[in-house]
Amino acid sequence: MNEPQPRASKPQKVAAISRREEDRAIVERIQNGDQAAFRELFDRYHRRALAVAIGVVKNEHDARDVIQDAFVKVHKNIDKFEGSSSFYTWLYRIVMNQCIDHIRKGKRRKHVDFDEQVQREEESSSSLGATSGALDANPSRAVLNRELGAAIQDALEQLPEHHRAVIVLREIEGLTYEQIAEVLDVPKGTIMSRLFHARRKMQEALGPYLKSEEASS
Amino acid sequence: MTVDNEQLQRLFDGELSTQEAAEVQRELESSPQATTELQQLAQIRSAMQEAATEWASQVDSDALFGSIERELDRAQSAPALKVISGGGAKRVYQGLGFGLAAAAAILLAVFTWPESGSIRPDAPAVAVTRGSEVLEVDFGTNTGTVFEVKGAVGQPLAVVWIDDEVSLR
Fold it and tell me: Complex ipTM, two decimals?
């Protein structure tokens, strides 16, 4: 069980500053024409950005498109990045704009090629195996976690996009209210309000699973 | 003092000062309902993080980076958006909503997208000043439309509307 988080401790702040400085150094290398540095930046952030995008666009394949487009934009605009904000705040702003564009343009794929579908099914079954294996010690918990994971996706799908964006940035990416406000370009108070309502809806949608987990622990 | 929703949320998110957090923690001891609420929030956070870890683990990083590189190569090798200055000739251009040259339009390089309504920082740059006569807009790998609009004092302006989606694919 996660405990409430205290405000960022000194080591956490030091780590955040260090990450920011490392990012800045990598960005400068890209600005100076070092293409390997772009891959380095991609490796640092693409998985986290992808998880955020999946949470918002609700579809792994669309999320890959979003991340592809976002990093293309990062590359094209890296010379304009002056470092007044942290790189990851800038990146998430681009990712969220791409997500919102994607949703509004209704770019969700209508057709999935047969081969692609087979591949997805194989990936899905292999990941199930890995999860089950890791949780063999408690099969009922494994099943419950899997159900909760699926229910999380369903619950996220029910949220309006502005609620989904906030809760994903907070719970998955761990951004502070201030950082989320910067990424989404809305006031901090609005972020708190959206987060509250998003959580309420998630609690309502996930109620049965939350009770079950309580009972089983 | 009772624990209200805002305090609970800020406690959970680590947005309270040490002193504030200690006060709310003390209040929690006599508020089982708030404690349950906190536990549920933690369960949701934990489940979302687990789900996100699984989502992220399935990506083929090399393939994704390869597709980004291909897009960048394509964008670099393709002709960029450009405006060819000139005037006098009447031409109708593919994708244009009207005969641009017919109006000998003053080109205002305004680039926007239908849904966002805001100017993007990565809009292709076109070095055209007000007063230029425009013969042709070459969209390069982009697609788009040129609209004729009236400015604040009724002056004719042309807005070049770039389709962002197509330009990146």
Answer: 0.76
